[in-house]
Amino acid sequence: MNQQTAQRNDTTANGDSAEDRVRIFDTTLRDGEQAPGFSMDRRAKLCMAQALETLGVDILEAGFPQASPDDFAAVEEIARTLRTATVCALARCQTGDIDTAARALEHAKSSRIHLFLSTSPLHREHKLGMSKQQVVETAIASIEHARKYCADIEFSAEDAMRTEPEFLIEVFSAAIAAGATTVNVPDTVGYITPSEMLERITYLRQHVRDAHKAVFSTHCHDDLGMAVANSLAAVSAGARQVECTINGIGERAGNAALEEIVMALKVRAPHFGLRTGIDTRKLHPTSRLLTQLTGQVVQRNKAIVGDNAFAHESGIHQHGMLKHRDTYEIMHPQDVGISETTLVLGKHSGRHALRQRLEALGHTVDDEAMESIFKRFKALADRKREVRDEDLEALALGQDPDA
Ligand code: KIV
Ligand code: ZN
């Protein structure tokens, strides 16, 4: 395995300053894939991995090789295939897991081993049966073991947000001293709020020993619907890696949605002053590829990639959009890979959008004809959810669309 793959803390792969560059760590193929309904076979995982690399993710978590022979094979194949993204494999803090992860990553151009260990009192007592000291010792021993294979080591303190902050300082300080190059602060159960996240990351960055030697990372779950807001709060506090998934898939209510984080950083660039390496025009195609591979669609009103994200039905909004697109859109559909805004014709639509659509279909109508068509259009829209082009053709020709 390549021992030279760890990124120095002050630059990213393409030489950007780490100060204003947020690394996107995609875990669609690990945390996303392990959620019910989203499992993918090797072929699907490889296909998705290639799309994620083209999208521009910095680190791609390909799987948990110890979990199953198929997951091992998927990680191995992805590691052999990818050229620019760092391929990451998850491992518990156990020698067997680490050795398996290292074998799966053997042929990667750039690789990372991601170790995780629970740190919260609940997990220490009920899941691990370990004392604080045992947790610290296990983390150190595992990081040192993983370092024999790989220079790029991430350590995650599972359930960090329900862990005593002072203990987190102890664990992360020990992890960095043992050689971790990224320290991840997961909100494993989606419990924290954005203001608490801002405070916690700030506190950790101030108190963890040699904090500057590691990249601080955030990994948020969406149980209370705050995963993206919490991730952005972490970034505001200095985290420079965000762990996220396409369409926000992941355990229970999911992980922070990659497309939402990336577009928030782009659209509100003056606010955050940060960049990612993502080609945002590939967001929608990548989202659609995932829905094809898993058979799970995204809801219509999903931010950025839902069918309604750039669609308008109400007459007032459509009128505004026809005058100036910025009235009701804060980003252009083309920026995320959607060809154009849709003005959906339905019972909320007005004359302006109707006339525009009729003209686009080649029907120029005078005001009198328009009044009659508009009345019949409204009656039809009350009966149907959406009025389609073929219905409009019939209306314009004086025919009954229902006939
Ligand atoms: O949610 C979590 O804590 C995880 C870790 C493995 C990082 O997925
Ligand atoms: Zn997770």
From TrEMBL:
GO terms for molecular function: 2-isopropylmalate synthase activity; acetyl-CoA C-acetyltransferase activity; manganese ion binding. Catalyzes the condensation of the acetyl group of acetyl-CoA with 3-methyl-2-oxobutanoate (2-ketoisovalerate) to form 3-carboxy-3-hydroxy-4-methylpentanoate (2-isopropylmalate). The gene is leuA. Residues 22-284 form the Pyruvate carboxyltransferase domain. The keyword Acyltransferase applies. Pathway: Amino-acid biosynthesis; L-leucine biosynthesis; L-leucine from 3-methyl-2-oxobutanoate: step 1/4. Residues 1-20 are annotated as: Disordered. Belongs to the alpha-IPM synthase/homocitrate synthase family. LeuA type 1 subfamily. It catalyses: 3-methyl-2-oxobutanoate + acetyl-CoA + H2O = (2S)-2-isopropylmalate + CoA + H(+). One of its GO terms (biological process) is L-leucine biosynthetic process. Homodimer. Its cofactor is Mn(2+). It comes from Dyella monticola. Signal peptide: none annotated. This is 2-isopropylmalate synthase. GO terms for cellular component: cytoplasm. The chain holds residues 1 to 403 of 533 of the full protein. Keywords: Acyltransferase, Amino-acid biosynthesis, Branched-chain amino acid biosynthesis, Cytoplasm, Leucine biosynthesis, Manganese, Metal-binding, Transferase. It comes from the Bacteria. Residues 1-15 have a biased composition (Polar residues).
